[in-house]
Design a protein that fits this description.
Largest sheet of chain B: 6 strands, mixed
Oligomer: heterodimer
Number of strands of chain B: 11
Helix content of chain A: under 10%
Shape of chain B: globular
Number of strands of chain A: 11
Order of helices and strands of chain A: EEEEEEEEEEE
Distance between the termini of chain A: 37 Å
Radius of gyration of chain A: 13 Å
Order of helices and strands of chain B: EEEEEEEEEEE
Distance between the termini of chain B: 40 Å
Chain lengths: 114, 113
């Protein structure tokens, strides 16, 4: 149980295009989902907290107009990287919270912007 | 006060040995302490977690030891195997709907055959 999926697993796009990443909790409902970014050999950096039916809460330094987050249902949150540039290339990982504490992570999405 | 300090940064252990990774926190409001295992190119997987009301929790070869007064907790991997080679992250959070995980910087474990 407690499976979180992400789609796509890898995406390569040209600079200036927008990319949407989906995060789904497959066997549980998640009121709260999180989006992280991870650079090589580093820890996870929280980008934003997504609550179903309300606006996401972004961490300091994360551009909300560039990283659009939508949490339309209790099992789906999406991250859209708008007008992507090479510096946005990274490993993006979502997590979904089960209960009050436990977070289960998706497999991650590798974004490469050319 | 929100930091979680993790050590060592890297660890090499022989097959069959015990791997020990340590974490320390400052915020006494933290009440949930999970450990995650991450393989290259994959998302972190929840390994084991503990709450401050117990001093130790064991699941198979993995054990968390928790010292509330010292504000420290550690992961012990018994009979370490090459398949355990991965990066391990400790984390801490204050429970509740908005509680975010505060991660340590990670420990890269290599188990030599």
């Amino acid at each position: 149980g407690a499976v979180v999926s992400q789609h796509p697993s890898r995406v390569i796009c040209k600079s200036g295009t927008s990319v949407k990443i989906e995060c789904r909790s497959l066997d549980f409902q998640a009121t709260t989902m999180f989006w992280y970014r991870q650079f090589p050999k580093q820890s996870l950096m929280l980008m934003a907290t997504s609550n179903e039916g309300s606006k996401a809460t972004y961490e300091q330094g994360v551009e909300k107009d560039k990283f659009l987050i939508n949490h339309a249902s209790l099992t789906l949150s999406t991250l859209t990287v708008t007008s992507a540039h090479p510096e946005d290339s990274s490993f993006y990982i979502c997590s979904a919270k089960l209960g009050t504490d436990t977070q289960y992570f998706g497999p991650g999405t590798r974004l490469t912007v050319l | 006060q929100q930091q979680v300090k993790q050590s060592p940064q890297s660890l090499i252990v022989q097959k069959g040995g015990i791997s020990i990774i340590n974490c320390a926190y400052e915020n006494t409001a933290f009440d949930y302490f999970p450990w995650y295992q991450q393989f290259p190119g994959k998302g972190p997987a929840l390994l084991i977690a503990i709450r401050p009301d117990v001093s130790e929790k064991k699941e198979g070869r993995f054990t968390i030891s928790f010292n509330k007064s010292a504000k420290q907790f550690s992961l012990h991997i018994m009979d370490s195997q090459p398949g355990d080679s991965a990066t391990y992250f400790c984390a801490a959070t204050k429970g509740g709907s908005q509680g975010n995980l505060i991660f340590g910087k990670g420990t890269k474990l290599s188990v030599k055959p």
